[in-house]
């Protein structure tokens, strides 16, 4: 399995028991969707995704998942996977509708402004700030658009477009 074909689920953050159980911090709004997994990919050294089969997993306080792997049955084995990232195939993501979307899903979508028309295409989403920012390429110039409900008006998956209503002067700021 290639990393490009997967999504980041979370990271193993601590040991839970001397029998090799670990706690993983999940990067999701709905951790309960991952409570009954049968397997997961663990990112090992060399950027290799290795499948790990699960005997049992269950939620442990909010967004932590307590995992008992088939291959990990003692503290030493748990230490070997500590702080490693967990991935699942993209096909495991629940379908989103309306204006909800996964960041990877909109890469390449055309961005249509209500006043200016086509202003470029999506190259990514920066979510490392308190406000997610849509990164748009306009003939080699980058435009940054805050992702708010007021600005993002429609995600059109059929036509691979995102419709926005940007504040006056925002786009001109980047193109002048």
From TrEMBL:
<dbReference type="Pfam" id="PF24986">
    <property type="entry name" value="PRC_RimM"/>
</dbReference>
<dbReference type="InterPro" id="IPR009000">
    <property type="entry name" value="Transl_B-barrel_sf"/>
</dbReference>
<dbReference type="InterPro" id="IPR011033">
    <property type="entry name" value="PRC_barrel-like_sf"/>
</dbReference>
<dbReference type="InterPro" id="IPR011961">
    <property type="entry name" value="RimM"/>
</dbReference>
<dbReference type="InterPro" id="IPR036976">
    <property type="entry name" value="RimM_N_sf"/>
</dbReference>
<dbReference type="InterPro" id="IPR056792">
    <property type="entry name" value="PRC_RimM"/>
</dbReference>
<feature type="domain" description="Ribosome maturation factor RimM PRC barrel">
    <location>
        <begin position="104"/>
        <end position="170"/>
    </location>
</feature>
<keyword id="KW-0690">Ribosome biogenesis</keyword>
<dbReference type="GO" id="GO:0042274">
    <property type="term" value="P:ribosomal small subunit biogenesis"/>
</dbReference>
<comment type="function">
    <text>An accessory protein needed during the final step in the assembly of 30S ribosomal subunit, possibly for assembly of the head region. Essential for efficient processing of 16S rRNA. May be needed both before and after RbfA during the maturation of 16S rRNA. It has affinity for free ribosomal 30S subunits but not for 70S ribosomes.</text>
</comment>
<dbReference type="GO" id="GO:0005840">
    <property type="term" value="C:ribosome"/>
</dbReference>
<protein>
    <recommendedName>
        <fullName>Ribosome maturation factor RimM</fullName>
    </recommendedName>
</protein>
<keyword id="KW-0963">Cytoplasm</keyword>
<keyword id="KW-0143">Chaperone</keyword>
<feature type="domain" description="RimM N-terminal">
    <location>
        <begin position="9"/>
        <end position="89"/>
    </location>
</feature>
<dbReference type="Pfam" id="PF01782">
    <property type="entry name" value="RimM"/>
</dbReference>
<keyword id="KW-0698">rRNA processing</keyword>
<dbReference type="GO" id="GO:0006364">
    <property type="term" value="P:rRNA processing"/>
</dbReference>
<dbReference type="GO" id="GO:0005737">
    <property type="term" value="C:cytoplasm"/>
</dbReference>
<comment type="similarity">
    <text>Belongs to the RimM family.</text>
</comment>
<dbReference type="InterPro" id="IPR002676">
    <property type="entry name" value="RimM_N"/>
</dbReference>
<dbReference type="GO" id="GO:0043022">
    <property type="term" value="F:ribosome binding"/>
</dbReference>
<comment type="subunit">
    <text>Binds ribosomal protein uS19.</text>
</comment>
């Amino acid at each position: 399995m290639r990393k490009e074909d997967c999504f980041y689920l979370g990271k193993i953050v601590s040991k839970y028991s001397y029998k090799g159980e670990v706690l993983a911090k999940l990067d999701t709004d709905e951790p309960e969707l991952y409570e009954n997994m049968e397997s997961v990919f663990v990112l090992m050294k060399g950027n290799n995704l290795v499948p790990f089969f699960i005997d049992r997993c269950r939620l442990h306080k909010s967004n932590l998942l307590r995992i008992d792997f088939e291959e990990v049955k003692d503290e030493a084995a748990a230490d070997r996977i500590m702080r490693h990232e967990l991935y699942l195939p993209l096909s495991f993501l629940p379908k989103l509708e309306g204006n909800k979307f996964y960041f990877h899903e909109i890469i390449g979508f055309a961005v249509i402004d209500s006043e200016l028309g086509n202003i470029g295409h999506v190259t990514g989403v920066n979510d490392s700030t308190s406000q997610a920012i849509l990164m748009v390429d306009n003939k080699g110039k980058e435009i940054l658009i805050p992702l708010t409900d007021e600005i993002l008006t429609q995600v059109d998956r059929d036509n691979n477009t995102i419709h926005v209503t940007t504040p006056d002067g925002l786009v001109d700021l980047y193109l002048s």
